Amino acid sequence: MAEAYIEDTNQGIKSAVKRIFNQIEKAGVSILKKSKEVYIKVNGIDFKKHTYTSPEVLEAVILYLKEKGAAIYFMENSTQGNFTRLVFTVNGYKDVCEKTGAKIIYLDEEDTETFEFRGKPSVKKDPIGYNLMTFRLPQTVVKIM
């Protein structure tokens, strides 16, 4: 079962992010895989204030993980007829990534590959199975799945 951690930001976002990661680490969960690659996918569907994760939160997370030795990749595929590159420029994500050294991956600009879902059988074999078993997904998503 997934767990959620909530922290007050009265002492600052950086401090709240650190406390959240400390709780995760205390629970015995390793923050980084052996590769030390971290792929961050936020909600960045548009540049209206209520449609994207705060750039300040993104920056605090990136800096925390970089202190742990992570190589950070930041990705999104914006929706609502937007180009991700434009959304990242307007909402401040591009500036945060340039400042912190995180590598941006614009999923809407990548070539796609076929990905086969294996979590459930096809509806042909099970009535609550997947309708489609394969999808075209951005290369990065296929790579990390």
Short descriptors:
145 residues, alpha/beta, three-stranded parallel beta sheet, two-stranded antiparallel sheet, 17% strand, globular
If you had to describe this structure to a student in words, what would you say it looks like?
The chain is of the alpha/beta class and 145 residues long. The protein has 2 domains: 32-106, no CATH class; 110-145, no CATH class. It has 5 helices and 5 strands; from the N terminus they run H-E-H-E-H-H-E-E-E-H. The chain has helices at residues 13-26, 55-67, 84-91, 93-100, 139-144; strands at residues 37-41, 71-76, 103-106, 112-116, 134-138. It has a 3-stranded parallel β-sheet, covered by helices on one side. Strands 4-5 form a two-stranded antiparallel ribbon. Strand 1 (37-41), helix 2 (55-67) and strand 2 (71-76) form a beta-alpha-beta unit.
Shape: globular
Assign a percent range to the helix content: 25-40%
Radius of gyration: 17 Å
> How many angstroms does the end-to-end distance come to?
19 Å
Detail the poorly predicted runs: none
- Count of structural domains: 2
Q: Which sequence of SSEs, written as H and E, runs from N to C?
A: HEHEHHEEEH
Task: Give the integer mean of the pLDDT values.
Answer: 91
Number of helices: 5
- How many individual β-strands? 5
- What spatial order of strands do you see in the largest sheet? 1-2-3
In terms of DSSP E residues, the strand content is 15-25%
- Tell me the major beta sheet: 3 strands, parallel
* Structure class: alpha/beta
